[in-house]
Amino acid sequence: MSYGDKYGPLRAYLRKVKEDYVVLSFGEIESVIGDYLPDSAWTHTAWWVNNGHYHAVWNDVHFETINISENIRCRRMEFVRTF
Predict the structure, then answer these.
(1) CA nearest to 33, candidates 54, 50, 49, 11
(2) What CA–CA distances, in Å, run from 42 to 1, 15, 19, 47?
(3) pLDDT by residue for the chain (83 residues), tens digit each?
(4) What confidence score (pLDDT) does residue 49 get?
């Protein structure tokens, strides 16, 4: 598995979501991907921005992250569907 494929399970999970708004704790995201998030995901807003990082697989299935700074402090991430 290439490094970029690590986040494919998160893409698949979000693709199946029917709701337009999803909140996942970092622990839940790690369970979905079957691996640990990197340290930078726990501390840096840049990791979660919607700007085409290879790991921003949520953009592939029409989701964006919101309230990034607050969510990092709360150890979760909010995803909202884009249309």
Answers:
(1) 11
(2) 23, 24, 25, 9
(3) 455 589 999 999 999 999 999 999 999 999 999 999 999 999 999 999 998 788 999 999 999 999 999 999 999 999 999 98
(4) 95
| pTM exceeding 0.90 | yes
Using left for φ > 0, alpha for ψ between -120 and 50, and beta otherwise, residue 52 falls in: left
Q: Using CA atoms, how far apart are residues 12 and 46, in angstroms rounded to an integer? A: 23
User: Can you tell me the distance from the alpha carbon of 68 to that of 35, in angstroms, rounded to the nearest whole number?
Assistant: 21
Residues forming beta bridges with residue 66, ordered by sequence position: 78
Residue 69 DSSP SS3: helix
The DSSP H or E segment spanning 39 is: helix 39-43
User: What would the two tokens of residue 39 be?
Assistant: 């340290």
